[in-house]
Amino acid sequence: MKLHFLRVLFICLMSVASAALAAADLEINTPAITTLKNSMQQRHSQLAPHYTSGAVGLTRDGQIVLRDANAVPLPQRQAINSLVGAENQDRSALYLEIARANQHPEWESEIRSTFAGRWIEKAQPGWWVQDNQGGWKKK
Amino acid sequence: MTNKFWMAIAALLLAGCVTINIYFPAAAAEKAADKIINEVWQLKDGETAGDTGDTPDKPATKPGATK
C-alpha cells in the first residue's frame, strides 16, 4: 500500500516538475504569432512618427489610439485611422493567439495587461502613454 | 495512519499540479511580451524604442507643420 502511494507521489512530483518547466516560458513561436509580429513590425515604421508627434498614444489596455488628430496633417488622417485600426486588430489577435498557443484562452486579458505595461515601459521618451487612471502623459 | 499521511501528501501535490497549471505565469508572460515588443519595435534587449539609432521612418516630415 505504501509502495502504491510512493508511486502516486512520484508521478505527482514529475507532473509538478513538468508543469514548472512548461511555465518557465510561454509558447510564442507559432505561425499565427509570427505572422502578426511581422505585420506589426512592418507597420511600426509608419506609426513611429505619429508616436513621436503625440498624435498616437499607447493605451493602458495594450492598444493604440489617435489621441490628437490635429497633430496629423489633414490629408493623412484617413491613413492614420486605418493604421491605428489595423494595429489594434493585430494586437488583439496577438494576445488571443498567445493565450491559445499556451492552451489557456482565458489568459487573454492577463496577457493583454502584461503587454500594456511592457509597451508603455519600452516606449520611447516623448511618446504619449496612458496611466492607470486613463490620463495621458508624455514619457 | 501512514496511509492517511501519504494520501494527504498525494492530495496536496495533486492540488499543487492543478494550481500550477491554472495559475497565470506572470514572469513568463513579461518575458514573452518583451521578446515580441523588441522584435516589433526592433529594439535590442533593455532598450526603449528609438535608442537603436535606426530610423526606418522619415521624421523630417513634421506632422505639426501644416496647421
User: N- to C-terminal separation of chain A?
Assistant: 64 Å
Structural class of chain A: alpha+beta
Give the CA-based shape of chain A: elongated
**In this structure, how is the largest beta sheet of chain A organized?**
4 strands, mixed
Q: Rg of chain A, please?
A: 21 Å
Order of helices and strands of chain A: HHEEHHEE
- Give the proportion of residues in helices of chain B: 40-55%
Give the number of helices of chain B. 2
By secondary-structure content and strand pairing, the structural class of chain B works out as mainly alpha
What is the tally of beta strands of chain A?
4
How many β-strand stretches of chain B?
A: 0
Assembly of the depicted chains? heterodimer
Strand order in the largest sheet of chain A: 2-1-3-4
Strand content of chain A: 5-15%
Main sheet makeup of chain B: none
Backbone shape of chain B: rod-shaped
Q: Which stretches of chain A are poorly predicted, pLDDT < 50 over at least 5 residues?
A: none
Order of helices and strands of chain B: HH
Mean pLDDT of chain B: 72
